[in-house]
Amino acid sequence: MSDLNANLDRLRPHLERFAKTGVMNRINGQTQPAASGQTFANSSPIDESHICEVARSDASDIDAAARAAAAAFPAWRDMPGTERKKILHRIADAIVERADDIALCECWDTGQAIRFMSKAALRGAENFRFFADRASSARDGQMLPSDTLMNVTTRVPIGPVGVITPWNTPFMLSTWKIAPALAAGCTVVHKPAEFSPLTASLLQEIAEDAGLPPGVWNLVNGLGEEAGKALTEHPDIKAVAFVGESGTGSMIMAQAAPTLKRVHFELGGKNPVIVFEDADLDRALDAAIFMIYSLNGERCTSSSRLLVQSRVADAFLARLRDRVSNIRLGHPLDPKTEVGPLIHKVHFDKVTSYFDIARQDGASITAGGDALNQPGYYVKPTLFEGATNTMRIAQEEIFGPVLTAIEFETEQDAIDIANDTPYGLTAYVWTNDITRAMRVTNSIEAGMIWVNSENVRHLPTPFGGVKASGIGRDGGDWSFEFYMEQKHIGFATGHHKIPRLGA
Ligand code: NAD
Q1: 408: β partners
Q2: Each residue's pLDDT tens digit, 240-286
Q3: Which H or E run contains 360?
Q4: pLDDT grade for 2, boundaries at 50, 70 and 90
């Protein structure tokens, strides 16, 4: 039996279960359909087969979930951090135990290759452990004495929060937002992406099995403009953590404005990988390829613009072309597969529309530029060459296995091109000249920059973007800054003079 068939066999019972039960909501510890009884269909991008029906929730379901989160908040907030820590570690343990199931379901739901998803499930557990270990110190503050007062600060959880996640690596991204919220003492209403609802329901089930009290984490499925919108508008929800497209972020900001919600946005990117002529070109090639073609290119931090210095461009692009044409596109549950199908027909149509756009704008397609003629949304890894930075393929987030290569002459050209985009999430700089690395990283407008490296996530570091790529940072203590409020308390140390009016 091949590995693919073995994986399909292991997946089958999960699919049978989802087909039977559908994906429902989970509110206050109760599994329930949408109050309206409505559902929408969820299908696999691998073969377009129907997986299950999913609760299509509206404002009344969100209201029930937000009320449950508000009712559960005081007890969860007041639980000692050491107790919350234990529960969060138990969730991490259970994720590790079920990592294979999670990875298989994630692949079937999203089209992501199993070679990456098995690691993504384990990273989800790491997110829980990281924030679990910080739960008991999340409230720590400072002592700032003045002449007359003993001033102390502490942090308190902001209240029930809304978490809205996208369809690319939905499991890992959900843990990344929800783990710090719970560690901080917030309760949660989670609205997962409609294209990939399976693993969010597994995750919530794991959490309650691990001892998370009912109402602390409520799951409401549905469409963005219905359930998602209602969540951002609900008065009991004090903050919204959102990962998704920049345009959606701007809608959410407007929706959340009447209730003055705090928002945290992790949005799109059009990230440059800049290869200077003095770089280690072998490593730069490996990293550039990995950062755009892994995860099907459906990755906010993907290196979707390759800026290569003209003196080394011909040789570098020739090697790149060969490698891109060689990337294994196929069934995501086959361990040999490097790129799987895109999430959905809508997204497939968007990504493939850029093939004509590239040609019309005058770029050439030197690898891929085509889809597989079979069911499922398989797009061949694609390379655009001869592009300029004003072309749409250089300005717009395509979010597929599609790389736009642009040549540059000088260091200043590279910086100008890198910054000439509405986005500012990540950048990757390849050079062996340390002072150039310092100058370039100083000038690039991005929230995260890696020098001579692909994106290697280290949880204590800040994750997030500038410009249209986001507002706020995740990771380390930055996550707690979002989910908590600073509180200042001043204790008089003596009888300082109080102004006496009307005396
Ligand atoms: P999307 O914006 O279409 O949807 C994301 C979520 O928002 C979904 O759950 C959707 O239902 C919900 N939503 C849609 N409209 C809404 C509304 N009006 N109110 C409330 N919720 C609404 O994004 P997507 O296509 O699912 O995900 C891909 C995008 O996510 C890309 O742009 C990618 O770069 C970005 N992303 C960013 C990061 C990051 O850390 N910066 C990480 C992953 C993905």
Answers
A1: 309
A2: 999 999 999 999 999 999 999 999 999 999 999 999 999 999 999 99
A3: helix 345-361
A4: low
Print burial letters for 280-297: b (CB count within 10 Å at least 16), e (below 16).
ebeebbebbbebbbbbbb
The CATH number given to 272-451 is 3.40.309.10
- 2-267+469-487 in CATH: which number? 3.40.605.10
**Ligand 1 lined by 215 (C-beta under 6 Å):** no
Q: Is 300 tagged catalytic?
A: yes
Catalytic residue among 52, 300, 396, 397: 300
Pick the atom of ligand 1 nearest to 247's CA: 2
- Residue 313 is predicted with a pLDDT of 98
Intra-chain end-to-end CA distance of the chain, in Å:
93
Q: What is the pLDDT of residues 330-342, one digit of tens each?
A: 999 999 999 999 9
Q: Give the tokens for residue 45.
A: 């991008």
Using a 6 Å cutoff on CB, does residue 268 contact ligand 1?
Answer: yes
Cβ–ligand 1 contact at 228 (below 6 Å): yes
Distance 100 CA to ligand 1 centre (A): 26
How far is residue 469 from each of residues 116, 185, 422, 445, measured CA to CA in Å? 24, 27, 8, 11
Catalytic residue among 126, 226, 266, 454: 266
How far is the C-alpha of 106 from the C-alpha of 110, rounded, in Å? 6
Q: What mean pLDDT is predicted for residues 79-85?
A: 98
Helix axes 114-134, 99-110, angle to 10 degrees: 120
Segment 146-195, tens digit of pLDDT = 999 999 999 999 999 999 999 999 999 999 999 999 999 999 999 999 99
Q: What is the pLDDT of residues 389-421, one digit of tens each?
A: 999 999 999 999 999 999 999 999 999 999 999
Q: Ligand 1, atom 22: nearest CA belongs to which residue?
A: 224
Locate CATH 3.40.605.10 in the chain.
Answer: 2-267+469-487
Identify the residue whose C-alpha is closest to ligand 1 atom 34: 268
pLDDT tens track for 59-73: 999 999 999 999 999
For residue 248, the CA-to-ligand 1 centroid distance in Å is 6
Is-catalytic flag, 105?
no
- Distance, CA 247 to ligand 1 centroid (Å)? 9
pLDDT attached to residue 1: 42
The three state secondary structure string of 146-159 is CCCEEEEEEEEECC
Give the mean pLDDT of 50-54: 98
CA of 319 from ligand 1 middle (Å) equals 34
- CATH code 3.40.309.10 region(s) in the chain: 272-451
The mean pLDDT of the chain is 98
